[in-house]
Design brief:
With about 400 residues, the chain is an all-alpha fold. Helices cover about 85% and strands about 0% of the residues. About 50% of the residues are buried. It is found in: Cell membrane.
């Protein structure tokens, strides 16, 4: 695999760290800025909103630019956002800085996935995407715990300065390792990128992402009360267990990339089905500490097996101009984050039990399988129609009267 993928992984590591570390720093931020923890929780939403808005907006705005230049510029914006977070004087400024930090997230992964697949042979495209995503999953194992400890001992502002340094390292890596490329033509610029989103298969692929990863976040958003109230773990053990989720996610990401290079659609259906099964077993697995730890690992593995296939599928459905559609998939991921957490919360508030968000997630995973099946049926129908048209053209014989007119 090209060494340039390492530069993309470093950027993904920084982005993953800054996205998830806020969850662990909410008490410190709330205490320092004299706000409540629920109010501090809006900082998580501000970042997610930045991702949803920034992913398609920045991808469209940079459609004609060199992708190498775009990646470096996006990481520059990321560094600025984290630096402003570190020096934010109050809650409102920090909200704005977190929103700014989220803007380059989706476009970086979207454009990065296009660059990653362009550097490898067709039979290794999914693996190249999974290696870029490796930075995101490793951030959950190393980056987030270390950044959280730094914030607890040195202050939360030090954490964002540290993440900014990671961003600078990513910029240097991108400038050194990513090959230079020319800007895209008008045909594959903004007009081509926008046209890609008009495709039904692209929207079905995005819908699969929303449903599939909504299933993950319906359960993962409430994993702490499941582990403490149902499985009996102490609060102090949750951080280690969340690192186990990162281990499972990393394994699933690498496995999904390898399998998807052999069967993209099969890997997607298999991952979503496995996710539905794991989530449906949560009420049983959360009865003991050992099986609960296994459930956390399996959740990460099953969910992230689908990551690379979903990203690659969106890119293939918009093959003429993939950057905007690929970035939109990251926006769909964050919509899944918000929507899944909301649906899981509804199940919990309805009094169905502490593990009920996982069952709600299982329903969403089944919905994801259904959407993927519809997408498959659409592809088969389009393929059959195309084959008929090709046979008609190939078998057409001009009539005598037509020959005379010629």
């Amino acid at each position: 695999m090209p060494l340039a993928l390492l530069a993309l992984a470093v950027g993904a590591f920084g982005i993953g760290t800054t996205e998830f570390v806020m969850m662990g720093l909410l008490p410190e931020v709330a205490d320092d800025l004299n706000i409540s923890i629920p109010t501090a929780g809006h900082l998580v939403s501000a970042y997610a909103l930045g991702v949803v808005i920034g992913a398609p907006l920045l991808a469209a705005a940079t459609a004609r630019m060199s992708r190498r230049t775009v990646l470096i510029a996006l990481m520059g914006l990321f560094v600025v956002g984290n630096a402003l977070s570190a020096f934010a004087p109050d809650h409102h400024w920090l909200l704005a800085a977190r929103f700014l930090s989220g803007l380059p997230h989706g476009a970086f992964f979207g454009v990065g996935a296009v660059v990653a697949t362009a550097m490898v042979a067709p039979e290794r495209r999914a693996r190249s995407v999974s290696l870029m995503f490796l930075g995101l999953t490793v951030a959950n194992i190393v980056g987030v715990p270390v950044a959280t400890l730094m914030g607890q001992h040195l202050g939360w502002r030090a954490t964002f300065l540290g993440v900014g340094v990671i961003g600078l390292a990513a910029i240097a890596s991108l400038a050194l390792l990513i090959p230079r490329d020319r800007g895209r033509s008008a045909a594959t610029g903004l007009r081509g990128e926008l046209a890609a989103l008009a495709s039904t298969p692209v929207w079905l692929a995005l819908g699969t992402t929303v449903a599939g990863f909504g299933a993950l976040f319906a359960a993962y958003s409430y994993i702490t009360p499941m582990l403490t109230d149902a499985a009996g773990y102490a609060d102090a053990s949750v951080t280690l267990l969340l690192a186990l989720f990162g281990v499972g996610a990393t394994a699933g990401n690498l496995l999904g990339g390898r399998l998807a290079d052999h069967s993209l659609r099969g890997t997607l259906f298999g991952g979503l089905t496995a996710l539905a099964v794991v989530l449906s077993l949560f009420p049983l697995l959360m009865r003991t500490e050992l099986t609960a730890a296994l459930a956390v690992v399996l959740l990460g593995t099953a969910a992230f097996v689908t990551g690379s296939p979903l990203q690659l599928m969106v890119m293939e459905k918009a093959s003429a101009a993939p950057s905007l559609a690929s970035s939109a998939n990251q926006a769909a991921f964050n919509l899944a984050n918000a929507g899944g957490a909301w649906i899981g919360g509804l199940a919990l508030a309805a009094g169905f039990g502490v593990t009920s968000p996982a069952l709600a997630g299982a329903v969403l995973a089944v919905l994801g399988v259904a959407v993927a099946a519809v997408a498959y049926a659409v592809d088969v129908r389009h393929g059959a129609a195309r084959a008929v048209r090709e046979r008609v053209v190939a078998g057409y014989v001009p009539r005598e009267s037509e020959e005379v007119r010629r």
